[in-house]
Specification:
Helix 5 packs across helix 15, helix 8 runs parallel beside helix 15 and helix 12 packs across helix 13. Strand 7 and strand 8 form a beta hairpin. The strands form five sheets. The protein has a four-stranded antiparallel β-sheet with strand order 3-4-5-6. Helix content is 36%, strand content 16%. The protein folds into three domains: 102 residues, N-terminal domain of TfIIb (Single Sheet); 72 residues, no CATH class; 187 residues, Dimethylsulfoxide Reductase, domain 2, CATH 3.40.228.10. It contains 15 helices and 14 strands. The protein is α/β, with parallel strands linked by helices. The structure holds iron/sulfur cluster (SF4). Iron/sulfur cluster (SF4) binds next to loops.
């Protein structure tokens, strides 16, 4: 870090100042004792010593990296800033990240467990201990397991940021009652992904994509997941085309190269029509499909009298999805046939550099909406 000579800089108070080049973040080797002047003491130069502790923001599931500036004199967090060493967010947070300080200092923040003492809804609570909480819950859960009343135990969490971990705990207990708010907005998309790829929230490689297709409300449509939004913009800056399938002119759609305002519930029909175009025009990734699609099993089970070759499998798939023509998808969705064909071809030509995602409305708002997540994989 370059320091400008002291004598060149004098504070309004008349004191000399050490001026350094602007830096976006304190270097990690100085995180144990980072010194800043107290802004409120200006023009006096009062040093404040901080220990900088890396942590995360959990105001959404993106879990961006933050740095907590802990005042060494008071032991309290003074402020939060983005952590440029976090591999996901890379120091770029939305406004909710640094605003975490408001939650820390909220006078109504609940700092210890409470037990209801009045009637339900009466609003009467008394302070209890974690020991009592753990003993009470553990005894009840244990009794339910021992007495084989496992369906009486349900786990509810607001925002599940511990993907996979609780499933293992609950699975070990023999309990399947896991609920969260995402069971309303994203469970259908998660289900489609889970049964198709074994992960309920895959993260496509947007930064290296040549074509990106986003369906519905999710990611960077204005409510969260800035790490993915950063990479979508990076992909666009490298020349990727972005298509958004959403009846709303969302924030994302307004940034897109193609806005596909489909009628709600018609998304899967459009995706299947696109998949069929990719098959008919031989734009698919044959090497990938030969290896990862169980086409031999399909032929043996459904067409044992047919030639058992990959080429015959493709022909049979084209027949199977014969009704999903551009005309059919256009009638269902309100899009033009030309736009469906054009996007399908661009997806096909992007090859392995195609990134897509669906979330919320298209999957959650329609019966069988999980098929939208499943149909994306056909592309
Ligand atoms: S996107 Fe915003 S709210 Fe979500 S984790 Fe990052 S900083 Fe926090």
């Amino acid at each position: 870090m370059t320091e400008i000579p002291l004598e060149q800089h004098v504070a309004p108070s008349g004191e000399q100042m050490t001026v350094r080049e602007l830096a976006s973040c304190p270097p990690p080797e100085r995180w144990n004792d980072w010194v800043e002047y107290d802004a409120k003491a200006w023009p006096r130069k009062v040093e404040r010593h901080y220990e900088i502790i890396p942590t995360i923001c959990f105001n959404c599931e993106a879990a961006c990296g933050l740095m907590a500036y802990v005042d060494k004199e008071t032991g309290r967090v003074k402020k939060f800033e983005g952590n440029p060493y976090h591999p996901g967010s890379r120091g770029r947070n939305c406004a909710k990240g640094p605003a975490t300080i408001n939650q820390v200092n909220d006078p109504e923040r609940i700092l210890y467990p409470l037990k209801r003492v009045g009637k339900r809804g009466e609003g009467k609570w008394e302070r209890t201990t974690w020991e009592e909480v753990l003993d009470t819950f553990a005894n009840k859960i244990r009794a339910a397991i021992v007495e084989n009343r496992r369906d009486e135990v349900m786990y509810h969490v607001g925002r599940p940021g511990h993907d996979g971990y609780m499933e293992r705990v609950l699975g070990a207990w023999g309990i399947d009652g896991h609920n969260s708010h995402t069971n309303v907005c994203s469970s259908a998309a998660r289900f489609g992904y889970q049964i198709w790829c074994g992960a309920d929230r895959p993260s496509p490689d947007y930064a290296n994509a040549r074509f990106i297709l986003l369906i519905s409300s999710h990611l960077e449509t204005g409510h969260y997941f800035n790490p993915q939004a950063q990479r979508i913009i990076e992909g666009k800056m490298m020349g990727a085309k972005l298509a958004v399938m959403d009846p709303r002119l969302s924030n994302t759609a307004s940034m897109a190269d193609y806005w596909l305002p489909t009628w709600p519930g018609s998304e899967a029909a459009v995706l299947l029509a696109m998949a069929r175009i990719i098959l008919v025009e031989r734009l698919y990734n044959g090497e990938y499909m030969r290896r990862w699609v169980n086409w031999q099993d399909y032929l043996a089970a459904e067409h044992s009298g047919e030639e058992q070759t990959f080429e015959r499998f493709i022909e049979l798939m084209i027949d199977l999805y014969a009704e999903y023509t551009p005309a059919f998808a256009a009638k269902e969705s309100g899009l033009t046939e030309e736009s469906i064909v054009d996007i399908a071809r661009q997806i096909g030509h992007a090859g392995t550099a195609f990134a897509a995602h669906t979330w919320r409305a298209a999957s959650a708002g329609n019966l069988g909406g999980w098929q939208v997540a499943r149909a994306i994989w056909f592309l």
